[in-house]
Each structure stands twice: as structure tokens, then as C-alpha cells.
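Progress report, Aim 2. The chain analyzed during this reporting quarter is listed below.
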Amino acid sequence: MASAPDQLTLQRHRDLIGRENRPYVRWAILALLGVLLLLGLANVFGQRPHTDTASADGIELEVYSPRRLRSGLFFMSRFTIRAERELEAATLVLDPGWLEGITLNTVEPSPVGEANRDGKLAFDLGRVRAGTKHVFFLHFQVNPTNVGRRAQDVELQDGTTPLLHIDRTLTVYP
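Predicted C-alpha cells for the chain:
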């Protein structure tokens, strides 16, 4: 049998004397990485949209938006107002959590006006006639350094009169 090369010793490099446990540590780290990847594929870390609804007095508000996101993702939120009675001045009021560490890219259709109401973002959507629906889209990108939980409540108002409220919480993973 041939001898080992100059810098190798059979005990250390073939028989792994002194390194017996290291393969198990490597396997455990690799298994942990695999579990994280599988959890990501199972959508544990976000992006799948969720529908929240509230209704009262012939008005329904539906919010279709993810509750869990990852940093750097683009996502869309859809707000649908169904009115069985007329709203003179429909206004969507969004908590500051909708824009904390998140960039608002697009607003469609353009609202009649935008305002600040006690630190909250208010979109004036104008009149919503009885028997119709109004669909409003916001497109966002999560800033790469953004991580944490925050409130993303939504309120529908007619002028300044509150009509409906939806409690939401957003979780942003690294």
C-alpha cells in the first residue's frame, strides 16, 4: 500500500481522530437550513394575501392583503367597498403601520384627495353610489431593513363619520 502524502496523517485525515462529532454538527446545521427552506416554501414567512371583512348598515369593506411579509418583497393590497346605500364622501383611513418601513409605489385609481388625520393616512375616494362597489389598489415594497410587527388597521368613513373598522397586524420577517 502507498504511503500518505507529506502533509497528511492517517489518524487525523482518514480516521478523523479528534473530529468524531464534527460530521453530526454539520448534518444538524444542514438539516436546520433545509427546515427553514421548507417553511419558506410552505408560506410560513408570508406574502400570501388574507381577506378581512367588516360590514354594517348596508356597507361592506373588504381588505385583501398579506399579514406576513419578508423584507424586500413587492406586494399589493386591494380594498373593496360594497354599498347598498350611498356614501357621499367615502374615505379610507390607514394606520401608520401601512407605511412604516414600507414604500408606497402606486395608488389606483387615484383618490379625489389625500390627507393626514391624526397621524393616519386618509384617502378620499369620493361618492360611492348605492348598489355599486369601489375597488382601490395600493402597491408597496417592503424596505430591506424593515423587520417587526405593527398595526395595520383600516377604517372606512363617510366624510369624518366612522362607519367600519378592521383590525389588522402585519409581521415582517428578515
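The CA atoms of residues 99 and 140 lie 9 Å apart. The chain has two domains: 10-41, 49-173. These observations will guide the mutagenesis work planned for the next reporting period.
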